[in-house]
């Protein structure tokens, strides 16, 4: 997938690039239940985002580095402590074998880093993983496998069907290591208590 950014001057009102999508209880797709998605791109051509509150099971960041041949297994213990403890997220159901790093703008690689908004960038090359492993990566980052994608008009239809809310994004919420708290925190940004949300679809 080629990730492109709509120029701000050409972006129409209502596009959600740089914002958070919050799944409503009526969300019928279990892969997105209680999900919070950072929107990396949104235009008339469709939308792409990364789920930021679902951890990937059965794989750690050192495991991934070993699989990619970046770090030999015998040197995993020599990785910086914050790298050893770094979790991997499920970014979405599309291209689940591909890694995306959402990160602060203190890391920037010409040709491969996409600036999004308010100090948040996206890089999807192996070089950023090498930089993180060496302790030279961005100050704040999320590594996600896969992404969430929508065809033209699809996301707008889902929003009209009350599948999603949206709210402004901020760095502390995006990169908060407390993944379980992100859903409640995102709703709180728009003044909603999750216990007050009604599942209009009537699912059990």
Architecture overview:
With 204 residues, this protein is α+β, with helices and mostly antiparallel strands. It has a single domain, classed as VC0467-like (3-Layer(aba) Sandwich). The chain is 19% helix and 28% strand. The protein has six helices and nine strands. It has helices at 61-67, 81-84, 126-133, 154-160, 171-174, 182-189; strands at 19-23, 36-43, 46-51, 88-90, 94-104, 113-117, 120-123, 141-150, 164-168. Strands 1, 2, 3, 4, 5, 6, 7, 8 and 9 form a nine-stranded mixed sheet that branches. A hairpin with a 2-residue loop joins strand 6 and strand 7 (120-123). The chain starts with 18 loop residues before the first strand and ends in a 15-residue tail after the last helix. 33% of the residues are buried. Mean pLDDT is 86; it is low at 1-12 and 200-204.
Describe this structure in a few short sentences.
The protein has 204 residues and is of the alpha+beta class. It has helices at 61-67, 81-84, 126-133, 154-160, 171-174, 182-189, and strands at 19-23, 36-43, 46-51, 88-90, 94-104, 113-117, 120-123, 141-150, 164-168.
List the helices and strands and how they pair.
Blueprint: E1 19-23, E2 36-43, E3 46-51, H1 61-67, H2 81-84, E4 88-90, E5 94-104, E6 113-117, E7 120-123, H3 126-133, E8 141-150, H4 154-160, E9 164-168, H5 171-174, H6 182-189
């Amino acid at each position: 997938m080629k990730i492109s950014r709509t120029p701000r001057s050409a972006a129409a009102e209502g596009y959600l690039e740089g914002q958070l999508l919050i799944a409503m209880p009526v969300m019928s797709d279990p892969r997105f239940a209680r999900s919070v998605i950072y929107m990396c791109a949104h235009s008339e051509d469709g939308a792409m985002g990364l789920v930021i509150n679902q951890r990937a099971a059965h794989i750690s960041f050192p495991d991934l580095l070993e699989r990619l041949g970046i770090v030999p297994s015998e040197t995993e213990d020599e990785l910086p402590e914050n790298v050893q403890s770094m979790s991997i997220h499920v970014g979405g159901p599309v291209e689940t074998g591909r890694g995306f790093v959402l990160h602060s703008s203190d890391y920037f690689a010409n040709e491969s880093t996409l600036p999004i908004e308010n100090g948040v960038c996206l890089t999807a090359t192996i070089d950023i993983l090498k930089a993180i492993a060496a302790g030279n990566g961005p100050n704040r980052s999320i590594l996600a496998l896969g992404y969430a994608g929508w065809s033209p008009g699809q996301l707008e239809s889902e929003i009209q069907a009350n599948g999603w809310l949206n709210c402004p994004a901020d760095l502390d919420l995006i990169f908060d290591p407390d993944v379980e708290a992100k859903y409640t925190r995102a709703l709180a940004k728009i003044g909603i208590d999750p216990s007050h949300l009604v599942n209009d679809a009537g699912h059990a």
